[in-house]
What we know:
Strand order of the largest sheet: 7-3-2-8-9-10
Helix content: 40-55%
Structural class: alpha/beta
Oligomer: single chain
Amino acid sequence: MFDRTRLKTKPLRMRKNRVRIGETAINPDAPAAPLPDRGAEDGVRQLADGIRAARNNGAPRILAFGAHAIKNGLGPLLIRLIEEAWISALATNGAGIIHDWELAYIGETSEDVRTNIALGEFGLWEETGKYLNLALNLGAWRGLGYGESVGAMTAQNGLDIPSECELLSAIEENLVSAPEKSAAACDLLEVVRQFELEPGKLHIKHRHVDHGVQAAAFRLGIAYTGHPMFGHDIIYTHPMSIGSAIGRTAERDFLQFAAAIAEIESGVYLSVGSAVMSPMIFEKSFSMATNIAVQDGKLIRDHRIFVVDLTPSSWNWQRDGEPPADDAAYYLRFLKTFSRMGGHMQYVPGDNRLILPRLYHLLKREER
């Protein structure tokens, strides 16, 4: 196997970034720009109505998004949406976790891939690899989820490192009654020894913690689930990356997400710019939820799914259903999958930097 210990990483401060908070962050209180067409405006109005009704009924309002929502400066708006309880749960992919953390840590993110891949530097940044993996290793031992582990580190400006004695005791005490806890302690013990980590508080100053969506979710007790895929994210290049820790935290997040989907009746699911992760985790979660519902003699059918993406729509999914396999629209996974998930699915094409501020503006205006 590839020996990651031979890799040379560089300090994150040496990386040139393309995204900076001061240049991209959207002010939720600024006037929302008008949407370019009437169809998008109608779609956002229906979305706002759906979220408002779901909140009034105590039903879930789940927002799943890709990493570009973070890179596009929407973090402050996402924070406002959960602070004011318009959104009850957030979900993103591994890249969304990373970009959100880097913005909270240094106020910048998004390197030049073309330039850095040629230099053998792409993704090989010490703090991102070390701190995120360490947060996940600790989170796996403490029974936290993927997003929760990173959110806790960010909100608390550091990590509490256990001693070897504490971990050895945990291994012995849980070996028979709770072997998974024992195994997680073994994994963390390996990291503590290999990297000679001193027990106690490891202080990690996040200079822009108020921009961290994960930190805000942790502070508010809101689910922020991470749904990574092995090999997709730069943190897997770091030798501190332990696959079992990633698996434990990510599995916990998937099951937490599935539990929210199981309550989606009368609720709203909003998928923004995630062409693969969001439809895939929804599909599996909805299948599990329906399996249990059918056993109880119930159905899940009064839910609304709104999909936001830049791709122009050449097919009327609401009117005509699923297109035939010889139509290019059939291969738009983020629409085809959601069209099969029952309830009401609506596509709102447009830039998330326009759609989400307009949505928040409508929610606030109608609340007054």
